[in-house]
Design brief:
The complex is a heterodimer of chains A (105) and B (586).
Chain A (H helix, E strand, L loop, with lengths): L2 H13 L4 H55 L2 H11 L18
Chain B lengths: L17 H28 L1 H12 E6 L6 E2 L5 E13 L1 H5 L4 H10 L4 H13 L5 E7 L1 H8 L6 E10 L7 H4 L11 H5 L1 H4 L4 E7 L5 E9 L7 E2 L4 H17 L4 E8 L5 E7 L17 H4 L9 H11 L7 E3 L4 E4 L2 E4 L6 E3 H7 L2 H11 L1 H10 L26 H8 L8 H12 L3 E2 L14 E2 L3 H12 L19 E10 L5 E14 L6 E8 L8 H19 L27
Parallel strand pairs in B: 2-8
Antiparallel strand pairs in B: 1-6, 2-3, 3-4, 3-5, 6-7, 9-10, 9-19, 11-14, 12-13, 15-16, 17-18, 18-19
Helix pairs in contact in B: 4-5, 10-19, 12-14, 12-15, 12-18, 13-18, 14-16
Classes of the chains: A mainly alpha (105), B alpha+beta (586).
Chain lengths: 105, 586
């Protein structure tokens, strides 16, 4: 590189303001940093929400299992029979006439 | 002597000694080097250790339970269910600090213990260096949650799953039960453990100091719940069968009994119960009556085998339906063995022979047919072959090779002694008689496609025997009490002397039996009732077992809406109403 070319380039640099690119990059960095914070925050919020939903689902599962148990206990044949015979004084008919051909309601 | 330094003009650059420049650079260099080497040490040398230690402090694996599948009957009613329970545990030391005093008192109250007792208990555990002690085991999660709300230090909850059996002893022996680790120990819970067991999963999360999940690491293995198991049992029929059997056992002061109801065309078992039974919910009760005797016990069928023998006689052409057999005085001597009828019946044809259940007649037929013919007849009805339910401890039955049979063995085999089988073998063989000779594969577990039927005997012979068995449930037959209003019934009674432990037969100990099909015109259901050692109200199959059959099969036919095939006013089919059965223990 000749000496004159070098001095010419230096002169060209001095003509253009050299701050634009660093400033744009700086702004970009700032923006990206804020966005990272935003995403991180969203992530936490959503994780929290999902955890709450999971907990709610688990609680519903627990309740469902208990309701199933309760239903099974209440609908147990021996319990129904006892109530039918003692409280409601029902008796079993010995003879049942079955009517054929009818469609089930 | 040196010259005094000439003061420098203000603002003029100061001359600096070269060594100072090197000294500062050196210091900076050492500093940089130490930073880099420290960074190297942390980032490269000890990275693994630090990462794991760091993760340990905030990354947690949350386990996701794989729930055990439910056991359902054919209509989807639950026979076995898993429900969550919580156990509370504590770190004794944390609870024993002075600051924890008020918590201890509140905790003691919730646990319904005296504070002193609780404290002593904790002290003892702490002295034994225990870091973990259960305060409460397997409680309703609501209860545990209420105690956790106290926020007592060092108290934590642990979730687990308990197994419940809503129908208790009614299906206890079929379903079985699980051990503490949640694996099946008895019954179908054991046999189909692999199907029912789920696989747990986990989720890796980052937790904050107060235990809140703040981030999902994205590493997750979903839990796989166990499959629900659908059985062929119909809980309504099962309950009815169990109730009637229990009532009969009590009415006749019997040792126990067994009962089976199955579909003739499919082999689906709708009910199978045996007494004594146990309640699988009650750990104390899980000691006696564990076996479902209808599946696991071997018994001699006695007279209930006669229809199979007659079917084989018709099949081979050795006898015809109208063949006449002289049963003489009702006894017959074969070597040292005496065959006896209860009453002498004289000359009978085959339907009469079944209706009055003549042992002498059966022995004569068996001797004429010969050992090989009898053996192959029984074999084709599946006797001595496994049932194939997959149930633990299933009985296969014993049918000795025909070569080994002496004359007395042949005679005995013809009326059901010296051959042994489970109750299910009889059910399967009778199903073949009711299904035009086609024998179904029995099953307790619902099948989407049925395995092919196996031909046990020709349709002609099966239908002829079925027609003969209707004569058993007639006014002059032994099984009239098995009649069901509105339905024709075909069946056979049996009064089986029990084997002595020392060999030979008991004089006064019997199985009262009835096996039959309903409706006889086009059998849909096969039922078996065996009552063990009835001591009151007779011991004949026709008086003890037949009424149970009537009650259960009548109820089952009604529940399953099987069309009636007889008018209700048919005199011969009307039976006296039974007393209202007593409530079995719940």
């Amino acid at each position: 590189m000749s000496d004159s070319a070098f001095t010419r380039r230096i002169a060209a640099r001095k003509q253009r303001p050299g701050l634009l690119l660093p400033m744009m990059l700086g702004a970009g960095v700032l923006c990206s940093a804020v966005m990272v914070i935003q995403v991180k925050n969203d992530n936490r919020r959503l994780t929290n929400e999902s955890t709450q939903l999971r907990d709610a689902r688990d609680a519903l599962d627990v309740e469902y299992a208990q309701l199933q148990l309760e239903e099974a206990a209440h609908s147990s044949h021996s319990r129904i029979e006892t109530i039918a015979r003692t409280q409601l004084k029902m008796v079993e008919p010995r003879e049942t006439v079955m009517v054929p051909g009818g469609s089930a309601p | 002597m040196s010259l005094p330094r000439k003061p420098l003009a203000p603002g003029a650059p100061q001359a600096v000694a070269a060594w100072r420049r090197w000294f500062v650079l050196g210091l900076l260099g050492v500093g940089a080097l130490s930073v880099v080497s420290r960074a190297f040490y942390l980032q490269v040398m000890t990275r693994e250790f630090l990462v794991t230690e760091g993760d340990k402090r905030h990354i947690r694996n949350v386990s996701l339970p794989g729930l055990r599948g439910a056991v359902l009957d054919r209509n989807g009613n639950a026979l076995a269910l898993s429900a969550p329970v919580d156990s509370l545990w504590a770190v004794p030391e944390d609870l024993l600090t002075p600051a924890a005093e008020p918590y201890r008192a509140a905790l003691a109250e919730m646990l319904e213990k005296k504070p002193k007792v609780l404290e002593q208990f904790l002290r003892k555990q702490a002295d034994a260096d225990k870091r973990f002690v259960y305060l409460l085991k397997n409680q309703n999660p609501d209860v545990a949650a209420r105690i956790l709300k106290l926020k007592a230090p060092g108290v934590f909850a642990e979730r687990s799953y308990s197994r419940y059996y809503p129908s208790g002893e009614v299906v206890g022996q079929v379903v079985g039960f699980c051990g503490l680790e949640g694996h099946g120990l008895e019954g179908l819970e054991k046999a189909l453990d692999d199907t029912l067991t789920g696989a747990p999963g986990f989720r890796r999360v980052i937790r904050s100091r107060d235990g809140k999940v703040v981030e999902d690491t994205g590493t997750e293995k979903a839990a796989r719940p166990g499959k629900d198991l659908k059985l062929t049992l119909d809980l309504r029929v099962q309950y009815l069968a169990y109730r009637e059997l229990a009532a009969a056992v009590e009415r006749n002061k019997a040792q126990g009994g067994m009962i089976v109801v199955a579909e003739v065309k499919t082999g689906d078992i709708l009910a199978v119960a045996a007494l004594p039974a146990y309640n699988p919910n009650n750990t104390e009760d899980r000691k006696t009556g564990l076996r479902n005797r209808a599946i696991t016990d071997r018994l001699e069928p006695g007279s209930t085998i006669k229809p199979l023998m007659v079917a084989q006689a018709l099949e081979t052409g050795a006898f015809k339906s109208e063949s006449r057999i002289d049963t003489g005085p009702g006894t017959m001597q074969i070597g040292t063995w005496t065959v006896r009828d209860i009453h002498p019946h004289g000359v009978v044809d085959l339907p009469e022979l079944l209706a009055v259940s003549s042992n002498v007649g059966a022995a004569i037929m068996g001797l004429k047919m010969g050992a090989q013919s009898l053996w192959s007849g029984y074999r084709s009805f599946g006797i001595g072959e496994p049932i194939g339910l997959g149930f633990p401890g299933e009985e296969k039955g014993v049918l000795h090779a025909a070569k080994q049979w002496r004359e007395s063995d042949i005679a005995a085999a013809a009326y059901g002694y010296g051959v042994s089988m489970s109750a299910l073998h009889l059910v399967r063989a009778y199903a073949a008689l009711g299904n035009a000779g086609q024998m179904p594969q029995l099953s307790l577990v619902h099948r989407d496609t049925l395995p092919p039927l196996r031909r046990a005997i020709s349709a002609g012979s099966a239908n002829a025997v079925l027609a003969m068995m209707r004569g058993v449930v007639a006014l002059d037959g032994t099984g009239i009490k098995a009649a069901v209003p509105g339905y024709s019934v075909a069946g056979k009674t049996g009064t089986v002397r029990k084997l002595k432990a020392s060999g030979g037969y008991e004089d006064r100990r019997h199985w009262s039996a009835f096996v039959g099909l309903i409706p006889a015109n086009d059998p849909q259901l096969v039922g078996l009732v065996f009552v063990d050692e009835p001591t009151q109200g007779g011991y004949y199959g026709g008086t003890v077992a037949a009424p149970v059959f009537s009650a259960v099969m009548g109820g089952a036919a009604r529940l399953l809406q099987i069309p009636q095939d007889l008018p209700l006013t048919d005199g011969a089919q009307t039976v006296q109403a039974l007393p209202v059965p007593k409530e079995p223990k719940a």
